[in-house]
């Protein structure tokens, strides 16, 4: 992509839609990661004429510094934690478990608010395209991918994001069948 940045999420969604349209995916589902990913995913869903659904991973913030991501969790209890043992020890197992419990409750509340329920239709054997508006640490994205594979049993998984750092792309590569990320700026 010749642009160094996208004008907005609509442009980002249009770029992803053009790339994904070339793949001619007929039996798939677009799985958006709210909030920003929904705008991007809606454009992809419309262009590919595939159903749109959501998965809501939540960041696990450090107990004394909630902005510091030490992991992520999804509604089915899939938990991804940092490999930094020092951070985990400082946070404490009991405190982390309380945060996980709180975040799962919040995920379920949002699933009911956004979707009407917490149960997914049967997506077994489908191609699941996971869409977000970008990646920072990769914790929430990886938690979403792991949960989708566990709960939905897809034929293939494709991660489609308009922008991400190279390190995040590399760290997620082993968890999906394909990654589409047109903009990988260096430095991020």
From TrEMBL:
UniProt-listed SUPFAM superfamilies: PRTase-like (SSF53271)
Ranges of residues in domain Phosphoribosyltransferase: 16-179
Superkingdom to which the source organism belongs: Bacteria
InterPro entries, per the entry: PRTase-like (IPR029057), PRTase_dom (IPR000836)
Pfam annotation, one family: Pribosyltran
Signal peptide: none
Recorded GO MF terms: glycosyltransferase activity
Keywords for the protein's UniProt record, in alphabetical order: Glycosyltransferase, Transferase
Protein name: Putative phosphoribosyltransferase
């Amino acid at each position: 992509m010749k642009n160094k940045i996208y004008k907005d999420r609509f442009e980002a969604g249009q770029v992803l839609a053009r790339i994904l349209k070339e793949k001619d995916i007929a039996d798939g589902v677009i799985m958006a990661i709210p909030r920003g990913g929904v705008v991007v995913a809606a454009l992809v869903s419309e262009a590919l004429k595939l159903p749109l659904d959501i998965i809501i991973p939540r960041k696990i913030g450090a107990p004394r510094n909630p902005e510091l991501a030490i992991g992520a969790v999804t509604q089915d209890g899939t938990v991804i934690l940092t490999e930094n043992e020092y951070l985990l020890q400082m946070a404490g197992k009991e405190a982390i478990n309380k945060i996980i419990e709180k975040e799962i409750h919040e995920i379920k509340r949002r699933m009911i608010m956004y979707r009407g329920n917490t149960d997914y239709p049967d997506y077994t054997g489908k191609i699941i395209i996971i869409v977000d508006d970008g990646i920072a640490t990769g914790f929430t994205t990886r938690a979403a991918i792991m949960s989708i594979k566990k709960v939905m049993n897809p034929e293939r998984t494709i991660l489609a994001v308009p922008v991400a750092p190279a390190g995040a792309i590399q760290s997620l590569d082993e968890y999906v069948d394909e990654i589409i990320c047109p903009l990988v700026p260096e430095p991020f």
